[in-house]
Amino acid sequence: MIKIVYLVSTLRKTGPTSVLYNIIRHLDKKKYEIYVISLSPEVENRSALDDFTALGINFQSLNLSRLKGYLYGGFKLRKMINKINPDIINVQCFRTILLSIFLPKKYKKIAIIHCDYDVDYRMLHGSVTGFIMSKIQDFVLKTINKKVCVSGLLCDLLQKKKKLDLTFTDNGIDTDKFKPAQNKADLRQKLNLPADKKIWIWAGVMIERKNPLLLVEAIRQLNTDDIFIFCGDGNLSSEIKEKTKDLNNVILTGNVDNINEYLQASDYYISTSFSEGLPMSVIEAMACSLPMILSDIEQHKYVLKENSGMLFKTGDMNDLISKIKNISNVDYNLYSSCARESAHKYFSSVLMSENYQKKYEELLNR
């Protein structure tokens, strides 16, 4: 049996956690013995731990705060890893990448890179701290045997900027879970959504990089009775709630466990992001047959196939409003079917997991 340890900060329900879940779900369990180690305690109602343990994995946690993790997490992690004695260690975020430097060189290490971290860290932590974090990650990544970007586009982008030996595997989603609704009317009734309105959905972490406030301002300008749903939470949640409190056509759900149902109950999907790695929520919406309106960043261009949506100029509210109005004039059934077919053909979780297993084999055969 090949022992693989997946290191995570936590199993909080986010895009990277969903990716990891789907990689593990499709692993050959007769071939791989799977361990997941988290650095910090799980947060109740926000953790996917139950989903992971249902897969039969071995779960352990350092149960350290972020500060304690930086101070002595590496030593505690090293002790835990040595007891398991894995063949491969998988890391996938700043904290786990950083702590991997404390682990013995005899272990083969693979890193999943989810985003253009130069941009992401600066937006999340400010210019100075973000710059320092990026440089630290550049240094530590050079000690890791295989570095896998979550899309070919991200791989090309980072290879132009950094002196790193990178490869890629496109992220994938569960196309059995994310699929068109069998009965949209019944689903809307279940979710307390109006049966006779056009529904648009935005989903993701409510942070500056995702730029949800652009859509809020566009909704104020549109003067429509269409319904707009925002699914997610983050540091902009309070501001969005304040700015939409007088709008009867805006629904804020917070974090939900049934995002697939909200996508299936909707008619169109909107993403306003400034930057992405591979936009999982966009691909999930495509699999549910939703036509797209996406900011024209390269990552969105990468996933948006012909006749499945429209692009608007990133950060341009007037262009976003124009596309919201114009997409009603296209063949809805054509765009829906093209979106669904693209998700199945290029971004299934089965294909993604198979590709990671090939990379594990390459790593062990070096």
Please render the helix and strand layout as text.
Layout: E1 2-8, H1 15-25, E2 32-38, H2 49-53, E3 58-61, H3 66-84, E4 88-91, H4 94-99, E5 108-113, H5 117-125, H6 127-141, E6 146-149, H7 152-161, E7 166-168, H8 184-190, E8 199-203, H9 212-222, E9 227-231, H10 237-244, E10 250-254, H11 259-265, E11 268-271, H12 280-287, E12 292-295, H13 298-303, E13 309-312, H14 317-326, H15 332-346, H16 349-364
Parallel strand pairs: 1-2, 1-4, 2-3, 4-5, 5-6, 6-7, 8-9, 8-11, 9-10, 11-12, 12-13
Structure description:
It is a single chain. The chain is α/β, with parallel strands linked by helices and 366 residues long. It has 16 helices and 13 strands. It has two domains: 2-172 and 348-364, 3-Layer(aba) Sandwich (Rossmann fold), CATH 3.40.50; 184-346, 3-Layer(aba) Sandwich (Rossmann fold). Helix 1 packs across helix 16, helix 9 packs across helix 14 and helix 12 packs across helix 15.
CATH superfamily of the largest domain: Glycogen Phosphorylase B
Order of helical and strand elements: EHEHEHEHEHHEHEHEHEHEHEHEHEHHH
User: Number of DSSP strands?
Assistant: 13
Low-confidence stretches: none
Tally of discrete structural domains: 2
What distance separates the N and C termini? 18 Å
CA-based shape: globular
CATH architecture of the largest domain: 3-Layer(aba) Sandwich
Helix content: 40-55%
Strands of the largest sheet, in order across it? Answer: 3-2-1-4-5-6-7
Radius of gyration (Å): 21 Å
